[in-house]
Write a structure and sequence with these properties.
Number of domains: 1
Strand content: under 5%
Number of helices: 4
Order of helices and strands: HHHH
Shape: elongated
Distance between the termini: 8 Å
Largest sheet: none
Radius of gyration: 15 Å
Length: 96
């Protein structure tokens, strides 16, 4: 049976990971090398919204699947590291 909260968490996990990469490797260079500060404002806001959704869905999925505190911390810390969410993708898929 597919757990809807875990599936939604997996989707937002991936989107948040991409938005972080875009923010760091596209928007930030555009700001500092080309003087386009608007790129960081737009991508930063999108990434911020996705990060908040990530945190909320992490709590919901953890409650549904009964993840341990350690697993929750791994998912959260992975979201702070560039490309980290892509390493947790397979673990999330296992719980769907």
């Amino acid at each position: 049976m597919i757990n809807k909260n875990v599936k939604n968490f997996g989707l937002v996990n991936t989107m948040e990971g991409y938005s972080y990469i875009i923010l760091l490797f596209i928007a930030m260079p555009l700001k500092y090398l080309a003087g386009l500060a608007i790129a960081v404002k737009i991508v930063g806001m999108i990434h911020g919204i996705l990060f908040i959704a990530f945190c909320i869905l992490l709590v919901q999925a953890a409650q549904d699947v009964k993840w341990s505190f350690k697993e929750n911390i791994v998912f959260f810390i992975a979201s702070l590291i560039p490309f980290g969410t892509f390493f947790t993708k397979s673990k999330i898929k296992a719980y769907e």
